[in-house]
Amino acid sequence: NGDSARAESMICFTDSLKPFVDVPFTSETSSYFSRNNLDLVQHRSRWGGAVHFALVSSKGANSIASDETHSKNKSRQITGQIGKFVAERVGGLVSSYTPTQGNNPELLEKPSFDNTWYAVAYPWQIDGHENAVHAAMGWKPKNAGKPFSTRLWGEPIIIYRDEDGTPTSMVDVCPHRSAPLSMGTVENGKVVCFYHGWSFGKDSACTDIPTLNAVAEDRLDPERNERFKERATKANCQNNRAVVEHEGMIWVWKGDILAADPAKLPSRRRGDMDSLPISTVLDYDVDYSYIVENNLDSPHLFYLHDGSVPPIESIGMMAKNMDQLRLSSFQDDCGFGHLGKLGDTGRVKKLLRFDPPNIVRHGGVSGFEEEFHIIPIAPYRTRVLLRQHLPKGPILSTITSIPYMVPFLTALVNNWNYHISLEDAVVMKGQSHMIEDFGAPRMKIGSLGDDLIAKYWSWRSKAHTNMAQKEGDSFASPYFTSFEQKKAGIPSGTAYGDDPQLMSQLRSDSQKRNIPLVTSDGTRDEQTGNEIGTWGIKQNYVQNSPAADFPPMNYKAYKNALVFDDMFKQLFAGDEKSNTMIKTAMGDFGEGDMYKKSYPEKKPKIKRERKKSKLAGPAYAAAAVLTGMVVVDGNVAVANALSSMISNNIFFLWH
């Protein structure tokens, strides 16, 4: 049919598309082929757009190719018969500026916090490891045999692996007497309640109730016991939650459990360059919305962070380059965001995108991607699961083949992320105080990049409006408020009484003030800064789960490492004092309280040229080893001792 108007062709490109396309993005590639009367059926790119793998087919006879129609056709409908035939069998092409694509496009058109998946943990957390470095080292999990506890939109849940190793999730409350199951243990794939020993296994089914056997031997009735456990399983059915382990993360479905659809999980594009994923956990004491806004804000990377860690400095994100920043808006099939570059003719350096309802993705032309899963734990409490994908080319593949290099890289990247989070957290805390307590506007006058913040806020407002209309309550909130009371043996109650109206009023007042009726001891470990909660002889109870054991909320371990690093650089390399939080924390090294206590009267200083010590090399080597002890082993006591020794003795001799 070569001469027929119905003739169609399919072409496979496996090389450079320069000068027509010099970026790796599917949208730009699709636009180029569309202008040439071709449909893009499948697409992959590597090496920052140097090589493209593109499968294209000719458009249908009735299709008119133009830039205008293409820009309006967000879904890029394939019009040719050959293209449709192939797409139906290999899957349609999703336009995504990042290697990870969202698969729940309904959330863009109909904003909602429900009927979607939320990443709530890393597998190593479910398995009992304290941090990503310990997991990378392959050490024995310290918390093995304990269920993982967290909250999603305020609802307390636990996650454990059943006897097949499959994740199971349920509400953190035993259907017997409402004791927290997070205080229990996991034994042979079953979570055992700490209070009376009731156990639950696969799909939260009740597997054992010890008191059923507390009868005379001649009165034991196995069939009756099984029927009772079936009743317990049925009573616990409403507490079950849909959970799945997918691409290195644990996801929980919010919404009708029967509507949980694994096809809506985000997914990495097949065929893209392999990557080394590095996982970091961050804990914040502000509402999740501030962190979404912060991660969609490009200019603050230049001004606030100003190249404070090597990755940011390497792509020119410094205050001196602020006037060169250029941003352009985009929307693909997964979300909306900005493309950023330096100068009018520069190449795209970084992109960021909001994937509803709570994910922000950063990426670049190199294939690097970082995904911020911003989890609403409770009002004014957020956990971020930051997962960074480092493109695994020949160099990184060689480096990671060296023993212990993956744990080292994990520790290094984790600490960079802690540093950035500590710079951000104090600003967001102050911002939250001004807005929430005094009614300051979220944004009064917008500037460069703030159009994306406004677009996110518009999406969020629509999600709240849709929820209020659905529930018929103008004050409806996505946050969890209370458990259902269906067929309860003894209904809920409070210290003030058990009248339903009284209880409702008390809880409502408590939630409005964000002060629970029952408060937990917020004691923290003096050395590690980890949250202890309500201390017990056999078991502690952490009410504010998950325990905020990571920076920026628990900054103690990182602060000690930062002090240690700063002192070594000053003592042995002659570097200037760092522009970090330790200036105030440690009295500005010689000009603050610590200096004054040792030297009540300042003595005249003798001007002298300051040269780098010959000990700089060995000192940095020692610093690397000792910092490794702090980071990898979590030995905060060592950091405290070293910091104290250096600050109180060696530093003053140096000056």
TrEMBL record:
Domain Rieske: 139-229
GO cellular component: cytoplasm; membrane
Pfam families: Rieske
Compartment list: Membrane
SUPFAM superfamilies linked to this entry: Bet v1-like, ISP domain
GO MF terms, alphabetically ordered: 2 iron, 2 sulfur cluster binding; metal ion binding; oxidoreductase activity
Alphabetized InterPro entries for the sequence: Cholesterol_7-desaturase, Rieske_2Fe-2S, Rieske_2Fe-2S_sf
Keyword set, alphabetical order: 2Fe-2S, Iron, Iron-sulfur, Membrane, Metal-binding, Oxidoreductase, Transmembrane, Transmembrane helix
Highest taxon of the lineage: Eukaryota
UniProt cross-references to PROSITE patterns, sorted A to Z: RIESKE (PS51296)
Chief location of this protein within or outside the cell: membrane
Official protein name in the record: Rieske domain-containing protein
Organism (species): Proboscia inermis
